[in-house]
UniProtKB/TrEMBL annotation:
Keyword Oxidoreductase listed: yes
Taxonomic lineage from the root: Bacteria, Pseudomonadati, Pseudomonadota, Gammaproteobacteria, Vibrionales
Pfam family name, one: ydhR
Protein's UniProt name: Monooxygenase
Domain of life: Bacteria
This protein's UniProt keywords: Monooxygenase, Oxidoreductase
Any GO molecular function: monooxygenase activity
NCBIfam families named in the record: PRK11118.1
Coiled-coil region list: none
Amino acid sequence: MKLLQVDFEYHGPMGEEMSSALVELAESINHEPGLVWKIWTESESEKLGGGIYLFEDEVSAKNYLEMHTARLKAMGVPEVRGIIFDVNQPLTATNQGPIGR
């Protein structure tokens, strides 16, 4: 399992407005190879958008990050920060982290 953390400067809609505007994008993400789940993140005060993703493997996480970075840059986002982490499964399970299938 690999965890991908992504954030970027975002000046678009947030909250309910974001949920309505991006539902089709959210649904399309479900079809990404190797994706287990995504948690959407937003900070109106910091003007940041992003997400936390769990992928089955590093190749899937890297491929998604590359595609998503290109998509965001095409939408005018100048900088995308993405970090791929290993998941410590025993400790995560101790704290009820949603890593199992």
